[in-house]
Amino acid sequence: MSFAIFRQAGGEDLKKLAEEHLQHDLNQEDRDTLKSATTKLSSYTTIGSLIGLGLTTALALRVRQNRVRMFEVFKASRRPTHVKFADGVEEALPDITPFVKPSRAGDIATYGFFGIAGLFLGGDLGLLLGQSAARKTIVQNPETKTRIERAFRLFKADILRKELQELEDGRGGLGW
Questions:
Q1: Is-annotated flag, keyword Transmembrane (predicted)?
Q2: For the whole prediction, is pTM greater than 0.70?
């Protein structure tokens, strides 16, 4: 899932302009087709996000279990406690067991990072599959596809005209 979905660029003006084009340039069948396509896109993205989150949470659980098992083996194994050098000097080795012990902070980081990665990976894969399904929905009827493309071109031209007018009036900036 991309954070771009939550951006509110353009505001009410663009929303109103898009609604006008939907009402005037498309018939009810075209609007229903677009609604079906957007529903598919949204559903695929949501399902992909949930599947990605579930799979990576399961993977994080396995990583944690393996970390605990490795620590138990490490703790139970015999380790050298001293090193004897060639000149006969003997030095004690520090016990590093507390440093490799699994911790709650490590578990939180593991589940957090794996969860976020799964959410984005699954969401993006769902978005790609959803785009394909939405595209198939729109191109089923050639006349509907033509009308939707025409309405989109007209909408885009109106947006460009509006941006041009803002730039000529000195209101447009660098896009920030």
A1: yes
A2: yes
